[in-house]
What does this fold into?
Amino acid sequence: MDNKTIKFYATILGMILLAIFMLSGNIRKPGRIYAPDMAYSNAGETYGESKIPTKVGDSMRYMASRLPVAGTIPFGTIPQNELAKNEAYAFSYTYMKHFANTPADKARAGALLKNPYMQTPEVLKEGEAAYITYCSNCHGKTGLGDGSLIIRADGTDGPFKAIPPSYADRLKTLRDGEIFHSITYGWNMMGGHASQVSPDDRWKIICYIKKLGGLPDNHTVINAGAPAPAPVAAVETKK
Ligand code: HEC
It folds into this structure.
């Protein structure tokens, strides 16, 4: 073996020993890190801690996330379409912020909010789809108050004991904004539908139920803003 060959084998042996040395020990731990700033970001983690204090109410919090500016409207809350230029429509998306669940605010909504939709075939079609899903189980397919929760298919009394009034009777006493209020917050025995039905669908449903009640877009409201009728009684019936 000449010197060159010895050097060659020595190098190979050295590399093998080095590899064994490097692979031995706890391989689950990362090795030394060069320039740790590049491996670990100094930027604040969302919802993490920060050295900069933020005033929340009366106390100071040390959080990385900044608070949104007062009056911020969450992205996507108000649709970015042509209709959003209609003030009443845009307003209805933040309805519960501006109108409380009180008869006075129901009347105020009746005076302020106008339905951005009319009873066109497309609006009625979408209103009908939402109505069938969320309302017809009580109010009935034709709006007479005979849904399957009120009267079962076999003619016996259903589980829900308060019989909704027919739309033909009730809606002529309500302005569109008041109907919007009742769908949003509910009314007496009827629960609110704000979490299920989007404001957009609520307006379309209003077009549809007015159609069911035989009322035109600009229906004349009998006794606008008058005190509400007494709650419908929950009837106790035999099975
Ligand atoms: C669980 C049964 C039930 C469901 C579901 C229901 N309603 Fe009602 N609704 C009632 C009852 C009962 C009343 C009568 C309340 C009263 O005047 O005492 C009523 C009343 C109303 C009124 C009159 C409110 C007022 O201000 O006088 C409107 C309008 C109405 N419902 C629309 C709807 C729409 C639209 C939906 C679907 C989004 C719906 N309801 C879903 C039971 C229901």
